[in-house]
Amino acid sequence: MDGNEERQPLLSPSVQSSAEAGCVPPTDANKVEALQWSYRQVVFCVALMLIFSFGSAIQVTPMSQLLEGILCQQLSKNGTSSSTVTVAGDFCKEPKVQSELSKVQAWMNTLEIVPGILVAAPYGALADRRGYRVVLTAASLGVLVQNACQMVIYSYPSIFPIRLLWATPIITLVGGGTAVLIPMLFAIVTAAVSEAQRSTAFFYLGAATQVGSLLSSPAAYLCMKVNVWLPVFIGFGCLGIATGICLVIPVAEHNVKPENTSSTRDSQGDDAHEEGRTLHRWLSHATQQTDAMFRWVGDHKSVTLFLITLLLTTLGKYASALEMQYISQRYKWSWSEAGLVLTSRSVTSLLLFTTVLPAAGNLLLFKGFTSISKDLCLARISLLLMAAGAVGVGLAPTIMGSMVAPIHTGLLYTIIAIFEALGTLTAGPLLAQVLNVGLAWGGRWIGLPFLATGLMYSASWLIIWPVGVPVDAERQDDD
């Protein structure tokens, strides 16, 4: 066996650095144990992503049907106080009802993003300072409570105005909602695995999302045949289980990032006493880190271009929220049937995440590509396929994660989440208005939002294609 192969590290760089610092004795047994600990973190993250995705996705179809039924009753001359409509009548497919439906859903999706934009960076800084588990749990708990409030509003439309749904995202100021929860999972995985394995781990996180969506469509279809509320309660239960997992998810001590020198020096005295007086210091620390990160982004052209690409592709992703409404409206199908049709997309995405993309990445590595250049190549190809209408994968977070210092990992992924949130913030009202135009024109123009989506993906591909691999990142990857 080659001596160089024998000297290859068994652990990710983060684990090695911890061992050298004295956190883990540099013995083979402890290295293997640390490696197993890292894999355990990845497994928990994938399981959490799967359950959370399934719980969220299984509620989409029944809640859309409930909302359409409520609006249909309120807009019809003979409306009733019932909160459920199992099969929508012809009136419910009229442009008047569908336009109001798209408006309520669009602004709902938009307002759900606002709390994440406001608190993502502070929670990211808190995660870097105190660890990911507490932030992850708070984010999941906020989503759970918001979901419970939405269920109450859907249950009593004669008491609560339906547009009160727009106020429920305020609850996710506690934890930041999905805008914080998802980046925290990616940050945990980033710290747990080596750079060469990172994109593969990200693929499996994405695959967990697709598996959740894949299972949710037929599950919702079958459950809605029994009662439209059954999948809603199942989804709520899954979100509760996800919150429980957040409480016990294994997070190694080396995932907790140290404070800066001045903050560390100020907190060396009585830690318990300091905790009662750190709110102002914490906000100041978060502001400084956020400002430093944005200045760093502004100084690096490649990262800026990737963030613009994320913004545009997020605009395009929102069109998928209109697919069920489009199918139900165009072909006069029930919501459960429309949701079942979208299963094919989840199957395709699952195959890409679990087989095609990992195999393509390994092939590029075998051909001599570095980890960074491999991810960049896959990102270009994926965005090109997205522009053509196929399912693609945004690998920009993987590449940017390799460009930033480990101490900023949590904050970097929240910055990425902010740009994605800004895209969704703009996409909701924009594509809803485009859909209203398509409904007014009638016929094939109902699909106008999807034409706009294709243009956004095309613009993303044109932006990312000229981007090259930074010399520093290439040299670091070779080392």
TrEMBL record:
Coiled coil: none annotated. One of its GO terms (cellular component) is membrane. It holds the Pfam family MFS_1. It is a multi-pass membrane protein. SUPFAM superfamilies: MFS general substrate transporter. The chain crosses the membrane at residues 42-61, 106-127, 134-154, 166-189, 201-222, 228-252, 303-327, 347-366, 378-399, 411-432, 444-464. Keywords: Membrane, Transmembrane, Transmembrane helix. Residues 1-22 are annotated as: Disordered. This is Uncharacterized protein. The keyword Cell membrane does not apply.
